[in-house]
Structures are given as C-alpha cells and as structure tokens.
From TrEMBL, chain A:
SMART domains: WD40 (SM00320). The keyword Coiled coil applies. This is Guanine nucleotide-binding protein G(I)/G(S)/G(T) subunit beta-3-like. One of its GO terms (biological process) is signal transduction. Belongs to the WD repeat G protein beta family. Keywords: Coiled coil, Repeat, Transducer, WD repeat. CDD domains: WD40 (cd00200).
TrEMBL record, chain B:
GO terms for cellular component: heterotrimeric G-protein complex. InterPro entries: G-protein_gamma, G-protein_gamma-like_dom, GGL_sf. This is Guanine nucleotide-binding protein subunit gamma. G proteins are composed of 3 units; alpha, beta and gamma. One of its GO terms (molecular function) is G-protein beta-subunit binding. It is a lipid-anchor. It is found in: Cell membrane. GO terms for biological process: G protein-coupled receptor signaling pathway. SUPFAM superfamilies: Transducin (heterotrimeric G protein), gamma chain (SSF48670). Keywords: Cell membrane, Lipoprotein, Membrane, Methylation, Prenylation, Transducer. The lineage of its organism: Eukaryota, Metazoa, Chordata, Craniata, Vertebrata. Guanine nucleotide-binding proteins (G proteins) are involved as a modulator or transducer in various transmembrane signaling systems. The beta and gamma chains are required for the GTPase activity, for replacement of GDP by GTP, and for G protein-effector interaction.
Length: 340, 68
C-alpha cells in the first residue's frame, strides 16, 4: 500500500474514532435536558432608531464596548462611526477600496478596522492628534479577500480570509504573528472568546474550528452543516459556539462535550443565514437571513420566538451591544436599525 | 513534486486529527446543564429577554421638555 493510501486510511480511522468518542459522551440531548424549562414568551422588539447615511449596501457592523458607538461598513466606500442613541455620525471615513466586507471596533474605542476584496486589513486611528481620522496601518499578506476581523487589543488583531487562513497580526509592526491554517475552504467569519484566549472560525468547508491563539493550534473541528458557514459567535460563557450557514440553519456546538447540541431550523426558513448574535444571557439567538428577516430563537428550547421584519433587503450583519440593551441590524437596503 | 506536497498536506491533516481525537470531553448532560444554568442565572440581566421600562431604555424617544 502506498504512503498516500496508508495516510488516507489513517485519516478515515481517526474520523471514525472521533465520531465514536463523541457518541460515548452523548448521554442525553439538549432538548431532553431542557425539557423542564418553559419556552420564552413571544419576543417583540421594536425599531428604536434608524441610522441613515450610507448610500449603498451595508456589509458589516460592530458595536463599540461602550454600547453607544458602533461602526458600519458599506460598499459606498465609507466606514461610519455612529452614536446609536442620537443617530449622529461621529466619523465618516472614506476608504481607499470600496469593496469592504468587514469592520471592527477596538475594545479601547481608539481604533477601527476594515477590509475586503483588497485582501488587506486597514487600521484607522480615531483619536489622532489633529482630529483627522487616518489610516494607521495596512496589514497585507493575505492572498484572498478579508472576510472578518476582530481586535484583541490596540496592538493585536485577528483576520479571516478567502485564502482559507486566519492571521494574528502585530498592529505596530504590521506583521503576521501567527498563521492559523487548516480550513479547506474560504474562512468567512470569526469570533473571539470572552477571555481572549481562543477564537473560532467558520468556513466554506462547512466546518467551524476552535483555535488556541497563543499556540496557533486548532483544538477542535465541528462538522454537520451542509453548506458554507457565514456567521459564527461564542455563547456568552465561552463554552459553546453558535454557527449560521447557507443551509438555512444555525447550530450550537458545545466545546467541552466536543459536539453539536442542537440545530435551529424550520421548514419555512429556506434562506441562508448571513449573521448572528446572542443576547446577554445566551437565551436568545438572533439570526439574520437572506430573506430580509431576523429570526429570534429560544436557544435552549430550539423554538422560534420572534421575528424582526423591517429591512427592505438582505440583513447582512447583526450585533448585540455589550450591556445587552439593544440589537443592531445592518442591511443591503443601506440602513442600520437599533431594536429593543 | 505535487505528489510529495500532497503527502505533506495529508500528514498534517492526520496529525491534526490525532490531536483532536485525544482531547478530554465532558458528558452532554453536564454541558447542557451548565448552559441552562448560565441562561437562567443571567436572565434578569438580559434586557432583550426581559424587556425594560421606558425610563431605563436609552433608545426610547425622550419625553418633550417644557419650560416652566
């Protein structure tokens, strides 16, 4: 038997081993375990604010940690920092490349980042001396589009790319600190754990991977989706991962049990999931879809408990503020809406 | 040679699978119980879940002030 054949056999054996190991820990299901919990009552959120100003599709938004400011990116070539309470535009930053796909707000509030088909992650300093917002760094090394980025601090940022890798960057030197390779398809989204030690990535190989940031090691891989994973996020306690896919479902994977706990699906939902966010307690899962709606799920009971209908085009991004007070949706209709 | 580079890739995949096969796991009953407990413990601090009064909602339209 050739070496390649032997390796292939070993790969299949290991995959079977993992499947079997997961089964031995599957002594119940989340559905059974939560059978004593009452379903959440109907959740009806209202649009409290509409942020108007972008002139084209909005592709991404991210809340600042103060739960008031947020940044959005549109293919009109602008990054806008909004005061979500007054609806004022705090900054309107013109971009070199209008093909932006992602944006992020640093936890400190000092920096924002964006990137897209230019394959770069551009870092902007909001607190420059002369008051002008300028490009501080252009992080270039990816050989594919930038799908997502998230700051760890003012000096480190993680990016995911269509080149199938994720990268941890040193912002000051503009260099790659770690490369996270392993996905067999475009990386579409990433999420950082609440303790900043791990991050998760979702990709077009239909899997989600958990990475140890400092060891640059993939610890766990989760399968089950039948199409690209477009959105990913941590459950608020950091022990579980939520994914959203083109297969129109969301899934909850537990990190310690190393397996899928539940799938959030409904035969009436046929459109892919573009974005997702969990409420502060983790009880509600908000998922944005291609059909212009956001579905709200009771995460423990896997029942749909609400819908946010208000956009006139695809919901491309969604975020819940750190204090849990509001949910922001961004759409191809060029508007952002604040709901609670 | 393309042959040897695909063997190198395959070796990496097998190495990664060996690592993933060896991790410690916890029973689903334990994991599910912990998730449930977290949700219930933090329910009262979840405004989207519990709602909030007008006065506590930073996004509610402000009442009109009148000069006395």
């Amino acid at each position: 038997m050739g070496e390649m054949e032997e390796l292939r056999k070993e790969m299949e054996n290991l995959k079977d081993q993992i499947t079997a190991a997961r089964k031995t820990f599957q002594d119940t299901t989340l559905q059974e375990a939560a059978s004593g919990v009452t379903v959440v009552g109907r959740v009806q959120l209202k649009t409290r604010k509409t942020l108007r100003g972008h002139l084209a599709k909005i592709y991404a938004m991210h809340w600042g940690t103060d739960s008031t400011l947020c940044v959005s990116a549109s293919q009109d070539g602008k990054l806008i920092v909004w005061d979500s309470i007054t609806t004022n535009k705090v900054n309107a930053i013109p971009l070199k490349s209008s093909w932006v796909m992602t944006c992020a707000y640093a936890p400190s509030g000092n920096l924002v980042a964006c990137g897209g088909l230019d394959n770069m992650c551009s870092i902007y300093n909001l607190k420059g001396k002369d008051g002008n917002v300028k490009v501080m760094r252009e992080l270039a090394a990816h050989t594919g589009y930038l799908s997502c980025c998230r700051f760890l601090s003012d000096t480190e940022i993680i990016t995911s790319s269509g080149d199938c890798t994720c990268v941890l960057w040193d912002i000051e030197t503009g260099t790659e600190k770690m490369v996270f390779a392993g996905h067999q398809g475009d990386c579409m989204s990433l999420g950082v754990s609440p303790d900043f030690k791990f991050f998760i990535s979702g990709a077009c190989d239909f899997t989600a991977k958990l990475w140890d940031i400092r060891e640059a090691q993939c610890r766990q891989t989760f399968s089950g989706h039948e199409s690209d994973i477009n959105a990913i996020g941590f459950f608020p306690n950091g022990n579980a991962v939520i994914t959203g896919s083109d297969d129109a479902t969301c899934k909850l994977y537990d990190l310690r049990a190393d397996q899928e706990l539940i799938t959030y699906q409904d035969s009436s939902i046929m459109c892919g999931v573009t974005s997702l966010a969990a409420s502060k307690s983790g009880r509600l899962l908000l998922a944005g879809h291609d059909d212009f709606n956001v579905n709200i799920w009771d995460m423990l009971k896997s029942e749909r408990v609400g819908v946010l209908a208000g956009h006139d085009n695809r919901v491309s991004c969604i975020g819940v503020s750190s204090d849990g007070m509001a949910c922001c949706t961004g759409s191809w209709d060029s508007f952002l809406k604040i709901w609670n | 040679m393309s042959g040897s580079s695909s063997i190198v890739s395959m070796k990496k995949i097998v190495q990664q699978l060996r690592f993933e096969a060896g991790i410690n796991r916890v029973k689903v009953s334990q994991a599910a119980a912990d998730l449930q407990q977290f949700c219930l413990q933090h329910a009262q601090q979840d405004p989207l879940l519990c709602g909030m009064s007008t006065s506590n909602n930073p996004f509610r339209p402000q009442k009109v002030c009148s000069f006395l």
